[in-house]
Amino acid sequence: MDKYSEIRVPISKDNPSIMRRESKCVLCGKCKDVCKKKIGVAGYWKYDSEDIVCINCGQCANVCPVESITEKDDTDKLLSALQDKTKTVVIMTSPAVRVSLGELFGLKPGDFVAGKMVSALKKLGADYVFDVVFGADLTIMEEASELIERVKSGNNLPQFTSCCPAWVKFVETFYPKFIPNLSSCKSPISMQASVIKNYFSKKIGKLPSDIVLVAMTPCVAKKFEIKREELRGLYGQDTDIVVTVREMGKLLKRKRIDLNKLNESEYDKAFPTGSGAGLIFGTSGGVMEAAVRTAYHLTTGQNPPADLLKFKKLRGYKDVKTASVNLLGKEVKLCVIFGTLSARAVLDKLKTKKYDMIEVMACPNGCVGGGGQPKQVDNDTAVTLRGNSLYTHEEKMKERSSYENLVLKGVYDEFLLAPLSEKAKKYLHTTYHERKYSK
Question: From the candidates 230, 264, 266, 414, which is the catalytic residue?
Fold first, then answer.
């Protein structure tokens, strides 16, 4: 066990997400402070145990002032894949990275650089660049359908979102009794990865093993998630490599690719982009808002009204937000949370405070504040600007709800058949398990 565990968070050598450079640590205690006061992990398990508890959120790396704690760098793995001419390299980009990558090239938080980012990744050598907003739409079609089934039956309510791997691991570790409440949906990255390996590979005449699938994310917990046994297919991992925004920024500079000097390009056509609902997945409340839009359509046959296309009660930089919506003739109660310490407070009161759906993101304001995002002196302002940028661009999009995504409809028609079908459950859904630790 770490001899400085009273001051800082211990990090195991086999942690897939983060590492510590001992020579740089100044024992400031900021890592433990954020882990205890925001994430709710430090202080909730015995530090004299050999089993180090970490939910892999990476917020300790975000607050480390001396770069002692960083994400585990996987850029060499990516470079190796790009140099292997027998492999087809696919890079897919998460919703939140397009409003943060520019910061590493002198731009402001929230500057929208999707087109330049695609150009940069192509210049780096990617064979295909796809948008995980498509995967977010896929998630919503499954998750909204799952919510409707649960509301009808009354079973396993509230339904918890499952797109944040740090939150999922938090439930598995500290609140295993609520595992049945987690949506069985894989995260958007894992859903899209499964579709690429099992559907797109056939479209281009490749074996799944011929494709190296790289996720560019704001999140270090994804480095943990892709190694979950529950997500392994016959060919191995769905997603092969995860690189954070910070890693990709460093790699582009290493290869002398300047984002500011590039023209804009579009995502490749197989999964070109998605709806506005998928785009706002990158900020706290976005998953819930997206789910409500589609659930409303699935239960009424109508498009959501204006107040559901801008669900104000689910927006804003507040760690716990509540609202309700009428579905199936019932008042469906909603709760949106960021910060797993805040989630503790809600979970501990579920016997008396009833909800039907709860969205939780471990990081500040959701993925826009992820553990792999660029560091800013005023982090609260940065994550707010990034989130606001996603909302601003979403309002300009023609397709605002996931069910309107025509490419997605094609994938269901040709491959998945329908939400919650047997094929959908096989490729898009998963299971969870309790994680033991010393209390």
Answer: 230
